[in-house]
Amino acid sequence: MPNLFAKDRIIAPAEFNRWRVPPASVAIHLCIGSVYAWSIFNPPLMKLHGVVASAADDWALSEVTWVFTVAIVFLGLSAAVAGKWLERVGPRMVGSVSACCWGGGFLIGGAGILTHQLWLLYLGYGVIGGIGLGLGYVSPVSTLIKWFPDRRGMATGLAIMGFGGGAIIGAPLKESLMKSFYQPPQYLGTVEVVELKTEAGRRFANVDGLPREVVIVAPNEIPQMLVKEQAGVYVVGTGRTGIAETFFTLGLAYFIVILIAAFSYRLPAPDWKPAGWTPPLEGQGGAMITSHNVTADAAIKTPQFYLLWIVLCFNVTAGIGVLGVAKTMMGEIFGTTLPQIATSKFAGTFVLMMSVFNMVGRFGWSTASDYLGRQRTYAVFFALGAVLYASIPFIAREQGEQPGVQWLIAFYAVTMVIFTMYGGGFAAIPAYLSDLFGTKFVGAIHGRLLTAWSTAGVLGPVAITYLREHSLQTALADVAMKVDPFAFEKTFGAPLAELPTLIAKKTVTLPKLMALTPTGTVDPSSTLYSSTMLAMAGLLVIAFVANWLVRPVDSKHHSPVS
Known about the structure:
Layout: H1 22-32, H2 42-45, H3 61-89, H4 91-115, H5 118-147, H6 152-181, E1 187-189, E2 196-199, E3 202-207, E4 210-217, E5 232-235, H7 243-262, H8 296-299, H9 303-324, H10 326-334, H11 344-372, H12 374-401, H13 405-437, H14 442-449, H15 451-480, H16 485-492, H17 499-504, H18 510-514, H19 530-548
Antiparallel strand pairs: 1-5, 2-3, 3-4, 4-5
């Protein structure tokens, strides 16, 4: 059995067609890249008890977003370790372990959802699944660079393209599975016909002679529902979102696909090179393409490694926080002002299109970097990206004050361009590393550099959730001041003085509060992410400077071993 996974067992014969390797790489990355569709899971995870709306004991957005964060952290940490291991044992072994971790992570996470144990979801999807992500991510990169030393940017684009496109398949698949497993909760009727009372911030109704906790769906909340139900009162704990069953199904499917792809890997012989290709001389084909190699241990002693670490970290931070809450963000910015267009289905399509442009950017920009040069390509990413991120608060403000479909189009266009560059930044970084440090140890160096992704996996979601929560609390307090106290008490069954408790128990939400405001009141939902976008623009400015400072590696770091 160990021989089945041995590195020397997958050395390709001389006549092997190198174009047979990319499909296996893309297949693995399509599976693990479904992590980019995580925001599809946010709404149902926040409604496990209430199903149609969040109940008091349901998880908050900040809690479920951290699952995504943990997965990205362990992706980077495992990649840092797996880089050297990959060079020793080969991609078949690493890919097979990835299949077990990523598929098994879904199964354990599904058990956590089914039992409402958040720690199990963190352990399964976050820790074990995150390790599977890291192993699956690094295995194709060094493999394809070895097969395509003549087209490094294109090769890394091929290797990583599938990861950016994982949500293309993942987003609609996840929504379809959740719909098929969905079961609506017990409906009691409209709020006008059901006698309600409020205790400690929770709403209750009499059901078969017993008080039962209920949730209320307002008319303006229906467009954001995955499965549309009518407005009114629903009994907590009587339906299911279908997300646990979805996790079980996906876990098995991903395990099978990744395992098959891992067994399709082949490696070139040590002395192999493409027919008719001659390795470039120092400086030929680009100002910073070296003909020498630098070991992983030596690379981390160079300033170039840490400059590129900053480049990757801040580029990822700017995009990953948005990816984690993409569906929620679309609903909050445009869901209340354009409810007939920005529905839950539309937001799901938005996540899918982000994945499309992410994937296109990974291949397009990395291929373009073969001609533009890696440093110039990243300069474009950060200069243009900073301007685009800074434009989103303006678009959101205009949408709140003067709603119109033109602002939705502008937002859509801006975010799609941003995500081509976000994906391109990921895909071109292994080629940038091979230009500076050589191709021999690039797998191990790339793995260590991915710790920047782990850091960004914390910084991005923390920044976006913290700043959003601060903006939300401010907005709730401001809107509450405009609500008639009598109408508030009549609607929520408690006086305005109990607002903090009602918010904590999810009885009061911004959409429900806005329904009580005077005509003409501007909905602040569209501006909840404005401070975050400005912060992300600032990070890209810093990354621009770090990229500009990159210079060729000093010869004292070159490895004496060819």
